[in-house]
Amino acid sequence: MDPARAATIEGCLWPLDRRDELAALVAGAARIATLGPAERFEWSYADVAPALSARALASAPAVVRVGAGAGGFLGLVGRDGAGADLRIVARDGQIVTCDAAALAAYLRAPAEGEARAGIEATVARAGLDAARRPAVSDALLRASLAAERVAEGERLRTAQPSMWSALRAAGTGRRAAAAVAGYLAQLALVAGLWWTVGARAVAADHGGGSVATIAAIIAALVGVRLAASWTAGRLAIDGGSVLRERLLHGLLGLDTESTRADGIGRLLGRVVETEALESLALGGGLIAAAGAFELVTGAVILALGVAASMQLPLLVACCAGGALLAARVQRALGRWSSERVSLTHDLVERMVGQRTLVAQQPASRRHVEQEAALARYSATGRALDCAVAVLAIVLPRGWLIAAVVALAPWLGDAAVRPSAFATSLGGTLLVYGALRKLAQAYPSLGAAVIAWRQVASMFVGAGRATAPASPVVAAADGATALISARDVSFRYPGRAEPVLSGCGLDIRRGDRVLLEGPSGGGKSTLGALLVGLRVPDAGRMTMAGVDQQDLGLARWRGRVGAAPQFHENHVFSQTFLFNLLLGRAWPPRREDVAEAEAVVRELDLGPLLARMPSGLEQLVGESGWQLSHGERSRLYIARSLLQPLDVRLLDESFAALDPETLERALACVLKRAETLVVIAHP
Fold first, then answer.
1. pLDDT at position 466, please?
2. What is the dihedral of CA 616, 620, 624, 626, to 10 degrees?
3. Who's near 287: CB < 8 A, 6+ residues apart?
4. How many other β-carbons are positioned within 10 Å of the β-carbon of residue 174?
5. Is the pLDDT of residue 96 over 60?
6. How far is CA 201 from its chain centroid?
7. What confidence tier does 471 reach under pLDDT thresholds 50, 70, 90?
8. What percent of the chain has a predicted confidence (pLDDT) above 90?
9. Nearest to 257, CA basis, from 491, 597, 68, 541
10. Closest by CA position to 576, among listed 630, 631, 629, 655
11. Where are the alpha helices (DSSP H) in 31-78?
12. Predicted pLDDT at 148
């Protein structure tokens, strides 16, 4: 690789603490007015050898973390026309061009530096011709390093304010139009087939359409149906993908106070309700759409038949009766769904608090409430099953019987008007199939409506911008307060008196702040305000002079982090390393693993690693290795220290440690945390 080009790329690397500023510049260059949730990606060695792959080039616009060791960020705007150059953001904010081949070589260099010498020595010992050795070495490098990660980043995307805009951006509009056109073509071919086949079957002289015409219609129908089914399947997959993605971002964007008020059981019940939305996207919605098209087409075909004056009013009456039955199903669905959410909440609460129930509740009383809840759930389930069965049986079969009876007086005209009679018969069967589909799909549709009411609030956060393009927050110096609070007040919902009133403080880079006070005095509430987990009711909070509302809570929380109190923190049922590196990209780099192990040993958790058979890869949490109170506390401290933060807040993190362990843990924290806030009892 040309050293001059390498120097150019090195000169365009941005420090890790200026990621937000770089993202804003990349978004501006890519003409993204408002940033939405980014899409994370990884580049492997195969993506950059021998050149940048199409997959890698399609990642732009993006902020890419590259380089050996800590490395830096590279702002990738996109291709420079159709050439081999890329547009990247220089350190001065200007957009410059970079040779794609040079960037690929720069990304390959760290991985190749460790493996090339050994591979070249092996090739030399193999006795190959000198002219072939470079090609063989490159092939072996690509084979051995293909899955090696060389960079990771986030692709910047425009925020989609609504579900419909997200679906349009995913291209579902074109697929929906194609699916509708396919269904219309199918229905037209079906109507033509019934007209042709019916005329030939009923006519006494076997006139009507020829066999060749019928075969051509059938062949066209098969082709159109295959194409429409494939398009509808892609539409369902794309729609379900958008739905799940927005749900995930919405869940992560929920206010912490609302989740705390709902409780884990009710939240789980609401999430379970989203399965109804998924089933709508993948099944019920498509079936209902097909049924609606067939119903309209069936009505048109009936209008062309011999019994239109009888069958059309009968169809209207049948649809009205179906609406009443559907309303009955919807009421039963609402009651059943409410009971299911309540039952899920109760089940989760009892599972979490099982030890408390065993110790505190008499055995004779443990089953009473559950049996009553199960009885209510069973009763609502039976009512729902009955309503669904009536809708699925009475509606389509009732129509079929009534329509055939209405067609009976015209049976004598079958020989005189064979095509019209066959049309009425075909329309009757087509409407029957449409009503069957609608009756089959309605429970999914009704459940989706109820589910949307349950989870609508979870989708609100998905439409918000997560990283506004401005303002840019510079690192605060010693004279400028990194965090400033003025006249901040906070009152919990339902309480008359505020927990905090007229509070003010400044935290500068390098400060070490100790918050002491009695229980219930507002220490943890102030900590939550500093971290951005709660928003003050009054007053102003700024970071490096920029107001919290202008900066956005996502960016605020990206620079200020906390190790909450023990009862508000969590050890996931994953590896010890996963729990340590929650604030970093996963899977981790080698340097991330090395730093995590160093922090763990500095916090005097080396004996714990020695006891665990798999070390950092040992599963911990509820289903894995059980950690003591003090070990969990130090895990939470390590998790905070391993995150790239400007300010760290530790809330009662040292309370469970003995004096000797406390001394070592505190030394580690003071060594690694430049700006620190510690909450403790006097």
1. 47
2. 110
3. 437, 440, 441, 444
4. 11
5. yes
6. 55
7. very low
8. 18
9. 491
10. 631
11. 54-57
12. 83
Rounded alpha-carbon distances, angstroms, from residue 661 to 100, 512, 611, 634, 666:
52, 20, 18, 10, 8
Query: Which spans in 461-575 are helix H?
Result: 523-531, 548-551, 553-559
How is the beta sheet containing 500-507 ordered, strand by strand? 500-507, 483-490, 538-543, 546-547
Q: Are 8 and 94 in contact (CB under 8 A)?
A: no
Rounded to an integer, what distance in angstroms lies between the CA atom of residue 366 and that of residue 372? 12
Q: Give CA–CA dist 290/282, Å, rounded.
A: 13
Task: Bin 556: left if φ > 0, else alpha if -120 < ψ < 50, else beta.
Answer: alpha
What value does the mean pLDDT of the chain take? 81
Q: Per-residue pLDDT averaged across 595-609, rounded?
A: 92
C-alpha span between 531 and 505 (Å, rounded): 14
Q: What angle do CA 123, 124, 125 make, to 5 degrees?
A: 90
Q: In a 3-state reduction of DSSP, which class is residue 280? A: helix
| Residue for token pair 């971002």 | 249
The answer to whether 472 and 93 are in contact (CB under 8 A) is no
Residue type, 538: A
Q: Facing residues of 676 across strands?
A: 512, 648
Helical residues (DSSP H) of 562-658, grouped into ranges: 576-580, 590-602, 606-611, 629-641
Of 48-57, 242-251, 564-573, 656-665, the least confident? 242-251
Task: Count Cβ atoms within 10 A of the Cβ of residue 356 and give its class: 0-12 exposed, 13-18 middle, 19 or more buried.
Answer: exposed
Q: Which of 674, 586, 680 lies closest to 633, judged by CA? A: 680
With cut-offs at 50, 70 and 90, classify the pLDDT of residue 669. Answer: very high
Report which secondary-structure segment, H or E, holds 484.
strand 483-490
Which residues are paired to 42 by β-bridges?
152
Cβ–Cβ under 8 Å, residues 20 and 543: no
Categorize the per-residue pLDDT at 467 as very low, low, confident or very high, splitting at 50, 70 and 90: very low
Give yes or no for a contact between 449 and 274, defined as CB atoms under 8 angstroms apart.
no
Instruction: Give the separation between CA 370 and CA 346, rounded to whole angstroms.
Output: 8
Query: Is 17 within 8 Å of 475 (Cβ atoms)?
Result: yes
Token representation of residue 311: 């069958």
Token reading at 464: 């918000």
Q: Are 174 and 235 in contact (CB under 8 A)?
A: no
Q: Confirm if 124 and 130 have CB atoms less than 8 A apart.
A: no
Alpha-carbon 595 to chain mean position: 30
pLDDT digits 0-9 by tens, 359-386: 777 777 767 777 888 888 899 999 999 9
